[in-house]
């Protein structure tokens, strides 16, 4: 049983921001994977390193968008309480969609 | 007893980093699971948090190292546009084609979910510290994300092991 004194509670906004931003990153990764199958027009902005092909851009953009989303959400929410349960549910939905979009049996249905 | 440069990096990418990742995940998950006021004394929380911070950050760091070595070192060798590359070998036969079109295509994408999710978990652990003990909602969310990160890395690692068996990178 803990006997430590109760410290000032940190609002849950920073946790919600970190989790939702990560989910956005996973979703973007999946969305770019499927979009790249639907249209070849994205290819020029997805090939960051030619020997590794469009994987570098899909992952690179996902990481960039994740970090930008994280900075924005963190600054907006860090000192405030959020509806954590609702935001976590949204995060899980984004992660599931991201996984679906990067699942080969799904995105190969759209191969051009 | 020798390894080529490519074999060495394949071992680093798949086995060494993968093993560290596995150990860090086990430590991190156990730390999150047991960080409850009814189970841990005040002194225990401090000690447990130290391990939790280490476990989550080591997992995040190894996940980043794994995806970077995989994407920028091993993958170009795998997909080199020559008939001796692993990708060409797999696609050359109907019996091995699925290893690339399903196994490698899934592995190369899903593995990247692991470092993103693991970093979010590690950050929240450091940011909230001892408060996690009294925040079951956040702690449970972290355990779920941590497990998803592990499953993503597990899928990538499993297919990596199989692919390297069917068509080794040399």
Describe the protein's architecture and organization.
Chain A has a domain at 34-110. Helix content of chain A is 67%, strand content 0%. Chain A is built from five helices and no strands. Chain A has helices at residues 13-38, 43-46, 55-77, 84-101, 104-107. The termini of chain A are far apart. With 170 residues, chain B is mostly helical. Chain B has one domain. In chain B, 79% of the residues lie in helices and 0% in strands. Chain B has six helices and no strands. Chain B has helices at residues 5-34, 42-78, 86-91, 97-110, 113-128, 136-166. The longest helix of chain B is centred in the middle third of the chain and has 37 residues, at 42-78. The chains are: A mainly alpha (112), B mainly alpha (170). At the A-B interface, helix 1, helix 3 and helix 4 of A face helix 2, helix 4, helix 5 and helix 6 of B.
Outline of the structure:
With 112 residues, chain A is an all-alpha fold.
If you compute it from the alpha carbons, what radius of gyration of chain B comes out, rounded to the nearest whole angstrom? Answer: 19 Å
Radius of gyration of chain A: 18 Å
Q: Decide which structural class fits the backbone of chain B.
A: mainly alpha
Element string of chain B (H = helix, E = strand): HHHHHH
Question: What is the chains' assembly state?
Answer: heterodimer
What's the number of helices of chain B? Answer: 6
The total strand number of chain A stands at 0
Overall number of strands of chain B: 0
Continuous helix count of chain A: 5
Strand content of chain A: under 5%
Q: Give the averaged pLDDT of chain A, no decimals.
A: 92
Distance between the termini of chain A: 60 Å
Terminus-to-terminus distance of chain B? 15 Å
The percent of residues in helical segments of chain B reads over 70%
Task: Categorize the overall geometry of chain A.
Answer: elongated
Poorly predicted spans of chain A: 1-6
